[in-house]
Structures are given as C-alpha cells and as structure tokens.
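CORE FACILITY INTAKE
Project code: CF-77B
Contact: R.S. (postdoc)
Sample description: multi-component assembly, two entities in total
Requested service: structural model of the whole complex
Turnaround: standard
Below are the sequence entries exactly as provided by the requester. Do not edit them.
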Amino acid sequence: MSEETATLTLTVNGEQVTRTVRVRQNLVDFLREELGFTGSHVGCEHGICGACSVRMDGTVVRGCLTLAVQCEGAEIVTIEGLTDTGEIADLQDRFVERNAMQCGFCTPGMLMTAAELLAQKEEMDRAEIREFMSGNYCRCTGYHAIIDAIESVNNARLKG
Amino acid sequence: MKAPRFSYVRADSVDHALKLLDEHGEDGRILAGGQSLMPTLNMRLSQPDVLIDINRLDDLKGISFDGDTVRIGALTRHVEVLKSDIVKEHLPLIAEAMPHVAHVAVRNRGTIGGSVALSDPAAEMPACILALGATLVLQSVNGTREVAADDYFKGLYETERRDNELLTEIRIPSQKSGRVSVFLELARRHGDFAIAGVCAYGTVSGRKIDDMRLVYFASEDRPVVGANAIAALNGKEWSDETKDAVCAALENDLDPMANLHGSAAMKMHLQKVLTGRAIDAAVARAGGAS
C-alpha cells in the first residue's frame, strides 16, 4: 500500500499552520518532527506514561493516541505554548523551588495534566491530586515533590 | 512503535460511516476515541486497511433520560459520563465505576461505545452495562437492531456486533428505587487494567438479599454473570455462612485466565474477596447493619 497523506489546517500554540502529513502519523510526532515543538516527549507510545500529554480543544490528551490528521480545525497547545501564555508560571516556579523533577523527561506531561487540575479550581487533597495525576509516570522523583508543588499552587490559587 | 500504513476516512454522517463499514467489512475499523485502537496500531497488533473516523458525528454524542431509561450515545466520552448529573442520579453503578476507567487524559478522549464495542475483558463499562441489563443499538446499511447486553458479549474481544454494524447507542434502565449497586475493582495502579472486578446490583432489605445480579470482569474472557453465585445468594440473609456458600458457588461460574497480573487461582481468590466486600457494601448502603 502506498503511503497515504492528507493536508490539514489547525492551530498550534495560537498560530494557524497547514501541513501535509502521513495519515498514520500521531499528533506528538507531528508536533515534534514537523513543527519542532520538542517539549512534548515520546515515551511509551501506547498511552501509559503520559510524557506526550498535550492540550487538544481545551482538554489534555495523549499525543501518541491521537492521529495528527484527526486534528483538522483543532486547537492544540503544547508545553511551549502553555509556557508562553504564563498560565502555569506559578506552577513552573514551584516545580523548580520544590525540585519536582530530576531528569525532566516526564515534566512537560506532568505540567500539562496539572494545568487541567488547576483549571478546575477545586479543593483537592493529596490523594485526589495523586489520582488526577495517576496517568503520568515519573521514574525519578517518587512523585512526592510533584504532588507537593501541585498541591501548594492549587491551594495558593484558591486562596488568592 | 509506529502505526502501520492505512487509509483514513473521516465520516461526515452516520449514513456515511455505515456505507464505509459495509464497503470495507472486516478490513475497516471504526476510530472513535482511539484509546485502545491506537496502542494496538502502534504495537502493530492490528493492521486494518481503513480507519473510519467517527469523531465528528455529533448525533452519536450525548446523555438523556426519559423517566425510565438513560440513553448514552456511543461517542459520548468517558469524561462526559463521569460528569453527568443524569448518570450520577440514575446510574450510580456507572458513576462509581467511571473513576476506575483509565486516567484523565484517556477519559477525555475514550468513549463508552468504543469500550463496549471492543469488549476488553478487563474493561469496566461492559461489565456495568451487563449488570444493569442494558440494550445495545446496532446500525448497518440494512437497518437497526437492538441486542440485549446478555446476548452481546461472546468471547475474547468477540461480540454480537457484525463487521458492518456500528454501535450507536446504549440504553440503560435507570436504577429503581429500593435497589442498591456496588462497583469494586482491584488494579496495580489506580486507573490501570483491572486484576479482578465485580458489579453487584439488586435489592437488600435489612440483611436479606433479593434479585441481586453479580457480574465479574477481568478474570474471564468477557464479563460474566455469576449465575451460581447469584442462586446461592438470592433469598438469603447475608451472613458468613451465606458468604461461604456464594464463594463456593462462584467456583462454578468462573474459570479465570492467568495473565501478567496473576494466576488463575489468585484471580479466583480475589473475585471471592470482592464478592464478600461487594455484598457487605450493598447491605451497608441499604441501611442494614454490617
């Protein structure tokens, strides 16, 4: 079978882009290889690790479990875009202060998922935060510092 | 770990999807949420010729209640079921099960219809709809038919759905007043595939159990009604003796498949433990002393 391609137009980090893609290319490979947004990482490629988490039309999704061609007309935000808007600047500062990363491979995915948690503006205890974050693997930190950082930012925002 | 080559078609109406399904038969595959299909493509466990993307078919989305039955469109995403007030009020079993379905990002994309159509043996939704006596609506170019959940699950990833049929809706009778439901699951990590699981749905008066239905998942090749366990349970007062009798009877209902998560014997043990806990919880929820 010859390689099928399709042309799609979508918005990535606020900018409209049009590209011709192989229909079997997944979203995270498209973002990394065609657009150069290498902040989204490719880990397990079957939806377990969460390193490829990106925002699609307002909610966090697995970049490895969505085809690029499915994103016609969609609004995609990667960690680069989320950083530029400042939406989670407080969380990123807190990750640094609390040393909530070691190798950093999982960090973009952690931040994308945590951004959705913070956007809910709900009081959450540590167990609830752990459950919310349970789809993102970290093999270095033991999670404690990550949960600390998210908890303190969520609490600070709710008070603020 | 990259998907094999395939053709991709975005269906622009249900009729369009049905035509494509009819045309491609078993070489076509419906792409709904993709949260199970995409891993199998990436790992090259499946190699369909054509993916038929139904994600734009808004007719297949939504949850409604007509006073008796909750209708859930097949393309309704797990997150929408999780947040639905209709589901919370009328299908508490599903409301209790939904947080166990994968993780946030997967629930944002995955659909209830995809889960039921695939019928993964460890999946929660097939077991829930079997416990609740749901009806599945299957459409093809030849028309529409309704299949009872009792007749739908045939084997490992095998269902009553034909290759040219699209699951369009799940109709679930609302939980009647006086009834109680319990969902329990064991998994290595919350949201991961279940090692063992049970749905219990029935009537409890004091400690007396009636019309209780027990459905088991994750240990068999498909969700299974525990007919012998149910026979040992209904009409009885819940006690240690009843629990022992129900667990003994369960041996005749289940023939667990060993997998990475555990041996057959371990899974049988866990299903018995969950059975006891489920009825304990049902009695407690119904207001009886436990």
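Facility notes:
- The two ends of chain B are 51 Å apart (CA to CA).
- Chain B has twelve helices and 14 strands.
Invoice: internal transfer
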